[in-house]
Specification:
98 residues, mainly alpha, 4 helices
């Protein structure tokens, strides 16, 4: 996840595929949820495949932290956690060094 550039997004499934854990998107989400905040890991740049932040009371406010961090990077997010995934999706093979 540290390779996801500022102002770009990845999906849980994309991260799972990159680490060779095909079909394990939920496990990526569970692992990220266990990070202590604040974190140097850019966890906030990972969203679901529908282009949404997973908004939930069980996230204890980290969903709103994620929203604020993405807005600070110039990624628009609405009140329901929707964002323009296609426009901001990271394509690691498209850039040398990614």
């Amino acid at each position: 996840m540290a390779r996801i550039p500022y102002g770009r997004l990845a999906t849980y499934g994309q991260i799972a595929d990159l680490i060779g854990a095909f079909g394990c998107a939920r496990q990526v989400g569970w692992a990220l949820r266990r990070l202590k905040l604040p974190s140097s890991v850019p966890w906030h740049r990972v969203v679901n495949a529908q282009g949404r932040i997973s908004m939930s009371l069980s996230r204890e406010g980290s969903d709103w932290i994620q929203r604020d961090l993405l807005l600070a990077e110039g990624i628009p997010v609405d009140e329901d956690g929707r964002l323009p995934l296609r426009q901001f999706l990271w394509h690691p093979d498209a850039h040398a060094g990614d």
